Amino acid sequence: MPMPLAPDRPASRLLVWLGVVPFLAFALLFLILPTLQVVTGAFRTPDGAVTLQNLRGLLTPSILHALALSLKLSLLTAALGCVLGLLLAAAVTRGGLPDWLRGATMTFSGVASNFAGVPLAFAFIATLGRLGLITVILRDWFGINLMATGFNLISFPGLALAYLYFQIPLMVLIITPALDGLRKEWREAAESLGASGAQYWRMVALPVLWPSLLGTFALLFANAFGAVATAMALTGSSLSILPIILFAQIRGDVLQDPHLGYAVAFAMIFFTGIANLIYVTLRARAERWQK
After folding, report:
1. pLDDT digits (tens, 9 = 90+) for 262-275
2. What are the backbone angles phi and psi of residue 255, rounded to the nearest 5°?
3. pTM, whole model, 2 decimals?
4. Closest residue by Cα to residue 282 from 225, 205, 228, 219
5. What is the CATH number of domain 60-290?
6. How confident is residue 106, by pLDDT bands cut at 50, 70 and 90?
């Protein structure tokens, strides 16, 4: 007969809560309080009065152009990251490749998904810049001049390529557990009914994975929409995306307007908040379905 569980002691509960205190303090100091300051600052003047003028400033042509460029960049890299990441994850999990290749891919994905900012920008400049390694090899060994083809790393395509370096591995990390959740019995049942491999993926696997794919797309969108260090280090001010506009308004010497910067940050919080809410909702739905 199983022994009854002893009731929780107050001392044990206190120790459990003490273990959570560092996380709560970190979240309060570096997430909640700064977010509240940004939100309140978006509706105040430098004198502290309540105003909507900062939000009206978001409708200026320069900020609207930056918003459109950021949305385009985020949607493009999120879509490409989802497609290419899904193909890579499916290859290493369902393609019958050696187990060591899956381990190596997951390890690299864990590192690359967090490799961003100035180091990533420097790596791309050293690789695909005007005197980068790949650029020089293609020019000297194969007679291919990347610059003559119109490729420019300090441009929208170059920045999108840099973003894909961490978008694709992040997709691999997130979608691999969902692929592992596809039961072998489903594939066997489809094949026993005469379905081909393409029909299985189109009619069974993709419908099951669809909530996970949409949720991951939303997460990749938020990940790209809020990235600033890589864009700043790679393109400087030559490509005006919304995070760079925010940096210029808060830290710049010429365009400094902190409260307009708060309004820009408030807009970014709005878009990324919606994207993360979509991700959490669809992720929970996908987990319930796979259970």
Report:
1. 888 899 989 988 98
2. -95, 20
3. 0.85
4. 219
5. 1.10.3720.10
6. very high
